[in-house]
Every structure is written in C-alpha cells, then in structure tokens.
Amino acid sequence: MCPVTQKSNMSQTKYIFVTGGVTSSLGKGIIAASLAKLLQSRGYKTTIQKLDPYINVDPGTLNPYEHGECYVTEDGAETDLDLGHYERFLNVRTSQANNVTTGRIYQSVIEKERRGEFLGKTVQVVPHITNEIKERVQLLGNSGDYDIVITEIGGTVGDIESLPYIEAVRQMLWEMGDNNAIVIHLTLVPYLSAAGELKTKPTQHSVKTLMESGIKADILVCRTEHHISDEIKDKLALFCNVKREAVIQSIDASTIYDVPILMQAEGLDTVTLKKLNLPDEIEPDLSHWKEFLKRHKNPKDEVTIGLIGKYVELQDSYKSILESFIHAGAANEVKVKVKSIHSEYINDQNYQAKLEGLAGILVAPGFGERGIEGKIQAVRFAREAGIPFLGICLGMQMAVIEYARNVLGLTDASSTEMDENTGNPVISLMEEQKTVTNKGGTMRLGAWDCELLDGSLVQKVYGGAKQIKERHRHRYEFNNKYKERLEKAGLIASGINRVTNLVEIVELRHHPWFIGVQYHPEYKSTVANPHPLFIGFVKAALAHKKA
Ligand code: GLN
Which of 147, 155, 240, 499 is a good FRET partner for 417, with 20 to 30 A between their CA atoms? Predict the structure, then answer.
C-alpha cells in the first residue's frame, strides 16, 4: 500500500485539527478522510490521526456494542474504527501513532513520573498531560513522512473529557502560528419540520463553546439533511466569525464514498489550502475514485450474502467487512446485499429457512461462546449445499470444528475458548498465550507472514502469490494434532506461517469455494486495492447465483 501520488517537498508540516460540536456521530472521521483524500490527490502527503478521550488504553478491551469494530493496523495496534476509514480512503497505512487515547496519554505520563523524569515537580494536566498530547500530535509531523497531518479530536466540544485536548490544540495553534495550523469545526444544522427551517443556533453555541477555550474555528463544516441556502451560510459566517467561503455544507450522502466529491464541490480543499497558505493550482486527480463510484453505483447484477455474527444489531461492529464488500462489489460490478443474520437465533430447526437463497455465507469473527452453535450450523449448511463460504478468524475456527464434528465424527470437537475440557480441542490456545493473564493488547496482533500452498484455491484467489502478509487478532489457533486427519478427510491447510507453524488458512477440496482464514482480510481492503479474498468470494457468489 502506498500513497496514490507522492510529490511535494514541503519543509514544514501543516496541521489541521478537526473538532466536533452539537452532537456526536456527525461523521468527523469521514470528513477528515475525505479532506485527506482531496489533499492527497493534489499531491500532498497526508495522514490522519484520531485522539480518543476515553480512559481505555486502546479500544481492544471494548465490546463492539460499545464502540463498534476494533480496527487493527499493520503494526498490531488495536484502534478506533475511524482508522479503517483513513486507510480505505487514502490507501496509506496507519499505525499506533495514528490513534491515541486519554488512557495511553496518562499511562505514558505516569510511567515517566515513576521513572523520575519530572523529579521534584507536581505532575499536572497542564502542562504534563497537554504536553504529552502535543508530542503525540507532532510525532507524525516530525517523522518527515507527511506534508499535512489531520488530527481528529474525538467527542464533542464542551465535554469534560475533551478539555485537555482542546487546550493542547489551542497551544499548538498559538505556537505554530496562522497558516501552519487550522481548526475545522464540524457541527449540525438541524431542520425543524414544524417550522420548516434549518436552525443555526446550535452551531453558534458550539462555536462559542470552542471560543471559550480560546479557539476560533477557521472552517465550519455543517452537517445537514437539507440544502443550506446562501442566506443561512451568510448568517453562519457572521455569527460564527468565519469567512463566508469557509462555511461548508455537508449534506447527507447515499454513500460515504461520495463525501470527497461533495466536499470538493463545496470547496473544502481550496479553502483549507488557502488558510494553510499552500498552493492549490494542481487539480485533485480523482479519476480512479470516480471510476470506483461509477462501478459502485451502476452494478450489472446483484448478490445476497449472509453475514452470520452475533453483533449484527450494530452495523459498526462489522464495519470493515461491510466496506470490503462495497469495494469487492464495485470490482465485480455487482451490488452486494449483505443480509445480517444473528447467529444466536440459528438452530437445527430453522437454519434452512434462515440461510436458503443466499449466494454466499460469511461467518464473522467474534469472542466467547454466545452464538457459536448457530455459526457451526451455518458452516455446515454452506459446506453441504455447496454455497461459497468465507470464515474469518472465529469463522475459520468454526469451520474446523464443524468439519471435525460432522465429517470426522468427533462429536465433542470444540475450541478450548468455549469448552476448556473438550475431549477434542481442534482449536486451542496458542502456546505463547498460555502464560498471558492480562487482556489488553496481548492477543496475537498485526501482520504475520503466510505461505500459500501451491495449486490451492486460495493461491489462485491471491493471483498466484506464494507469500502473503495479513493482520491478526486472536488467541486461539488450529490445533496441528488434528491436521493430518482433517486433511485426509478433505479440509486442507492451504496457508501456513513457516516460522510459527500456525495454520492460517483452511479450504475444502471438494467444494466450489470454501475458505476459512485465521486472519482479518477486511482490514486491508481499500478503494484503490479491494481485497482479493472479498473479490474472489463475491465472484464465486455471483457464479453460484447464476448456476
Ligand atoms: N475468539 C477467537 C480467538 O481469540 C477468534 C478471535 C476473532 O475472531 N478475532 O482466537
């Protein structure tokens, strides 16, 4: 993965801070990613960082219902799902440095205090916590890899938790000076249907709240469900103390991938460059992006794929998987309709009714016992009915258990995660995990090598590659004691890490398309580089539907 365009030899990194007002969930991540895309496509090397104001050191210990999917970077950081958007939009890798939480800031300051780095001093929020925040922001800028760093401040202005971040931003703006650092404030302009009007007051108040902390917004991005008239833009500019051209409408879009185009039309990139005193004569080259959008919006066919998981009530839980289907759908020129099916409610009486008619079945990642029997049932159905199947992480483990139970006849086969005393632990705790007691950041994480078996289906899917590298997040593994028996019975280990000897991929010999992967391909799929496994899976689903 590399930047689409690399040029510019700017001596000084410029900083853009994105804050949010009025409510949460306005889509700061998408606005940040869209602006970054526009700047990148003008040749500026751009990265995005997310500062999260919670005490968890990372979101790895959070339930998906709390915070959506936990996104994993190449270097094994467990991060906010917004980093997924950054990678998908920019096609540039992020790392631990791109996501910092209050917990991590405090942990680092407290460790420094214990080492005696502040000896003799009282350690305080200002300056010690704010200095640590500033250092984390400038870490990316000082790497020399980027012309522009966009830092998204999580939460909403006015929150108690955000205060140290806002203060750190105020100090950086003061230190860096005009034209080197700016603030984009994302707010909501709600529509009152009784009055038939868009209301600017919440935005005025939120800009004022920001002002109370000594920060003047340079640009306002206004989320709205209705077109914002020139008159309202004038009013927003006057009362919020921003230039008229710096009032940007962000109207609801049918897809997040439209947002860079909409932001370009509104001039977000031009006004940003102007404020940063950067040349804007190079027009953004969005030809590839537009081609993707064209394919996405004009599918020639349609397939329905079942997503079997236990967090299906919350779409954000499987964000990267859903986005990977969008990328792969566009690549195949088909619309992928993802039907979320709750694994907890699949049983041996109803599985047929629930799964019939699907062109493909994906069994999702997950933790713990809840819903696993439904997942196993879904694997069995896909295997027996010859429906294209993709099992991801826990989904792959369920495929191994299903085969051991129903083909090898080891009826008690299980994972020691679900049943510690199973007589047939076909999935068991990795050796190096056995002494691990802490839960945070201790799984097998990040990118690991995998060698593909010559002549395997998965090798074909990966375009004939011999070696791949994919991202992991798990504690349990395929138990090699069962490898020979499973392979003899037709479930092949088609991807192996030669150093650890861990099985990374399984596939079925006599099946049109049945692949289980111990890693998470969804983290690496981007608009510019749709993931081959998803492309192959959608293609197989289409073939299945047509047959
Ligand atoms: N719970 C399983 C493990 O830890 C699978 C994890 C996952 O699906 N990400 O190995």
Answer: 499
Beta strands in 134-246 (DSSP E): 148-153, 181-188, 191-192, 197-198, 219-224
Say how many Å lie between the CA of residue 337 and the centre of ligand 1.
26
Which residues 6+ apart lie within 8 Å of 533 measured at CB? 390, 458, 461, 462, 515, 517, 521
Kindly give the distance from the C-alpha atom of residue 351 to the centroid of ligand 1, in angstroms, as a whole number: 24
Active centre residues (catalytic):
393, 520, 522
Amino acid at 351: Y
CB of 314 closer than 8 Å to CB of 64: yes
Q: Please give the Cα distance from 298 to 306 (Å, whole number).
A: 22
**Ligand 1 pocket, residues with Cβ under 6 angstroms:** 365-367, 393-394, 417, 473-476
Strand-pair partners of 100: 51
Dist CA 99 CA 103 (whole Å) = 11
Q: How many angstroms does the Cα of residue 417 sit away from the middle of ligand 1?
A: 9
User: What is the average pLDDT value for the chain, to the nearest integer?
Assistant: 94
Residue among 370, 390, 393 to mutate when testing ligand 1 (max atoms within 8 A of CB): 393
Q: What's the pLDDT tens digit per position in 261-306?
A: 999 999 999 999 999 999 988 888 999 999 999 999 999 999 999 9
pLDDT tens for each residue of 36-93: 999 999 999 999 999 999 999 988 888 888 888 999 999 999 999 999 999 999 999 9
